[in-house]
């Protein structure tokens, strides 16, 4: 809890920090397009710009500062590489280039030898109020800074993880300024895990329990946030990242819990009882509504309610199973799983329950996740041989494609907020672990390794 | 409980001693007159009739409580449950004839212990997806519940919960394990 509050505070601090090169326009002038004033680092025609990200320069000998300078460079390289907008030159190839004493002494000739189009240089130092991180993206051909900022944070901002939040913030801002891309470096994952080995020795013997965990998008800073002596499943983020909705069996039957992370309080808006069980919540893109599955009318149906539990409405009315809702990015439609056609398939409908339409016609499908703009796609789990693969339905072409490769069993896709990446669980390395993959099936990255980890969800 | 068992053991020892001590019956030995008036009446009216040679009856044991389940706590009952699970076919939730036989027996247990409330857990194997399996497990639990209700078990004694594929009974990855995991499991939750 404390950690999240601190991280959010840090982001706020970063936003409020001194902006060196992008001074705000005087209010009397008409707003100008950013492209008019931004120097864009370009590569050769048809190729992505080549970037180098050496270690940041520690100012002084403080061990925390030295460690942070190294970590920020490494994490920034990974963050930029993850979005595939730049070609990141391998760090090993420039270990021989000596770290300059200051941010103003960039050895341009050495970077030209490596054919770098741009190099990101930065410094880390201790200064009031705590830590100051300076960064520049320098065009190698001219020595001109295309991007430059200074960030400040508390001493704690580099104490626990060597300042990864600085790298994530720089990556997101460079992507936005240089490529017009909303990056995901500051986003979070939520998932379930049994890694702590806790078990319930209940009436039916010994059972592993699972709790809710969160982490940075790259798997760093994994942290448990529930302490249920039972099953917690299917956590999903609210858009402000200050709350999670999930399914908990803490009372002996499943109910929806909304946990407010910074306030250490939770609510049960669906009002579950032994006769009215609720599970698999989805949060609307504006954070005001929760869709979920309930058996309160005799079988699994989709319902929607306000976050406080008011205005609850039933959206499906069918003797078949209707389960696992997810909202469309504008929030006006819901995709869900139904076996009303005879097998489990993905269907969509309006949030008033109208316009029900079948999307998939495969062996068995489940767990739809709807891509944010600029794509209009639904990813889902699809049976494939003895296991499952992640497939994507594209509304524009009404076509489907498989993005996992039949290795292991792959389930429970969840889109990143920029629509480019998908978190999912897979048995490809043994027990189920959380992996990330791009919408084209490339860029596979494993983010959990301990215990069984499932039900990934990706924050805004 | 211990006292009852001690008593029963004592009776057993006495009976055994009596049996051992009895000599081979060389002579007829008069049995005591039957105590009950209904059966004793006509016999008593036949004076002089020789009693058949027979062993003296062992008096019936004073069975205070013959049902060990009544005295067990819920955890003990569930660890060695009188209820049998009902198994289902892949992706199916209908109760087949074998399942009906099982449920008939389970219903008899429920009728014998009318205060018991049970939870029917619905489970599925790993060949379904996680989310859909939560609903499939629920449908299986409800199918078992509906059949028990049709046999006259009050619905308010039968709760249901689905765990989907979260709690496999057999962690294996073959049909032997899967067939064990597609089931409705019966758990006593109050008595």
What is this entry, summarized?
Chain A is mainly beta and 460 residues long. Chain A is 13% helix and 37% strand. In chain A, strands 1, 2, 3, 4, 5 and 6 form a six-stranded mixed β-sheet that branches. Chain A has a four-stranded antiparallel β-sheet with strand order 11-10-7-32, with no helix packed on it. A four-stranded antiparallel β-sheet of chain A has the order 12-13-14-15, with no helix packed on it.
Q: Could you please describe the fold and organization of this structure?
A:
- The longest helix of chain A is centred in the first third of the chain and has 21 residues.
- Chain A is built from five helices and 32 strands.
- Chain A has two domains: 292 residues, TolB, C-terminal domain (Neuraminidase, 6 Propeller); 148 residues, Rossmann fold (3-Layer(aba) Sandwich), CATH 3.40.50.
- In chain A, α3 packs parallel to α5.
- Chain B has 191 residues and is an alpha+beta fold.
- Chain B is built from seven helices and four strands.
- In chain B, strands 1-4-2-3 form a four-stranded mixed beta sheet.
- Chain B is elongated.
- The chains are: A mainly beta (460), B alpha+beta (191).
- The interface between A and B is medium-sized, with 40 and 29 residues.
């Amino acid at each position: 809890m404390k950690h999240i509050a601190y991280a959010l505070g840090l982001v706020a601090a970063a936003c409020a920090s001194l902006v060196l090169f992008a001074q705000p326009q005087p209010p009397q002038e008409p707003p100008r397009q950013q492209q008019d004033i931004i120097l864009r680092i370009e590569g050769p025609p048809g190729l992505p710009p080549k970037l180098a990200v050496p270690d940041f320069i520690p100012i002084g000998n403080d061990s925390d500062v030295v460690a942070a300078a190294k970590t920020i460079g490494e994490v920034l390289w990974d963050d930029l590489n993850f979005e595939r907008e730049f070609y990141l030159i391998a760090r090993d190839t420039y270990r021989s280039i000596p770290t300059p004493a200051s941010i103003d002494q960039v050895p341009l000739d050495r970077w030209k030898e490596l054919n770098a189009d741009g190099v990101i240089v930065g410094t880390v130092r201790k200064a009031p109020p705590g830590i100051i991180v300076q960064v520049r993206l320098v065009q190698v051909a001219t020595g001109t800074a295309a991007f430059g900022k200074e960030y400040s944070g508390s001493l704690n901002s580099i104490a626990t993880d060597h300042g990864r939040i600085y790298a994530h913030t720089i990556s997101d801002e460079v992507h936005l300024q240089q490529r017009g891309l909303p990056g995901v470096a500051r986003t979070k994952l939520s998932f379930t895990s049994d890694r702590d080995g806790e078990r319930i020795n209940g009436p039916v013997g010994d059972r592993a329990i699972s709790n809710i965990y969160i982490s940075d998008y790259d798997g760093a800073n994994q942290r448990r946030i529930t302490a249920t002596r039972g099953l917690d499943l299917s956590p999903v983020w609210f858009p402000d990242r200050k709350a999670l909705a999930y399914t908990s069996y803490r009372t002996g039957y499943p109910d929806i819990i909304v946990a407010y992370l910074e306030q250490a309080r939770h609510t049960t808006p669906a009002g579950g009882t032994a006769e009215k069980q609720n599970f698999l919540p989805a949060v609307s893109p504006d954070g005001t509504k929760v869709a979920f599955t309930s058996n309160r009318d005799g079988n699994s149906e989709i319902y929607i309610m306000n976050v406080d539990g008011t205005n609850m409405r039933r959206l499906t009315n069918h003797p078949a199973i209707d389960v696992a809702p997810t909202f469309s990015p504008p929030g006006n439609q819901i995709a869900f799983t139904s076996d009303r056609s005879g097998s489990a398939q993905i269907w969509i409908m309006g949030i008033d329950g109208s316009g029900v339409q079948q999307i998939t016609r495969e062996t068995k499908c489940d767990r739809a996740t709807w891509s944010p703009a600029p794509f209009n796609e639904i990813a889902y789990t699809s049976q494939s041989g003895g296991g499952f693969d992640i497939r994507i339905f594209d509304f524009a072409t009404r076509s489907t494609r498989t993005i996992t490769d039949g290795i292991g069993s792959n389930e429970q896709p969840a889109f990143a907020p920029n629509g480019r990446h998908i978190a999912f669980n897979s048995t490809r390395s043994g027990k189920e672990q959380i992996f990330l993959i791009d919408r084209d099936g490339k860029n596979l990255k494993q983010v959990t390794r301990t215990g069984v980890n499932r039900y990934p969800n990706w924050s805004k | 409980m211990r006292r009852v068992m001690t008593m029963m053991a004592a009776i057993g020892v006495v009976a055994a001693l009596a049996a051992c001590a009895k000599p081979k019956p060389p002579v007829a030995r008069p049995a005591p007159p039957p105590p009950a008036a209904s059966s004793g009446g006509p016999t008593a009216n036949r004076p002089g009739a020789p009693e058949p040679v027979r062993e003296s009856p062992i008096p019936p044991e004073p069975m205070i409580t013959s049902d060990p389940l009544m005295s067990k706590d819920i955890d003990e009952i569930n660890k060695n449950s009188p209820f049998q699970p009902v198994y289902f076919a892949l992706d199916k939730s209908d109760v087949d004839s074998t399942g009906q036989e099982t449920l008939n027996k389970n219903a008899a247990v429920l009728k014998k212990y009318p205060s018991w409330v049970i939870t029917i857990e619905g489970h599925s194997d790993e060949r379904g997806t996680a989310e859909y399996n939560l609903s499939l497990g629920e449908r299986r639990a409800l199918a078992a519940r509906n059949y028990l209700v049709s046999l006259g078990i009050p619905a308010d004694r039968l709760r249901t919960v689905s765990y989907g594929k979260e709690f496999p009974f057999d962690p294996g990855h073959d049909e032997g394990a899967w067939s064990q995991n597609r089931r409705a499991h019966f758990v006593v939750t109050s008595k």
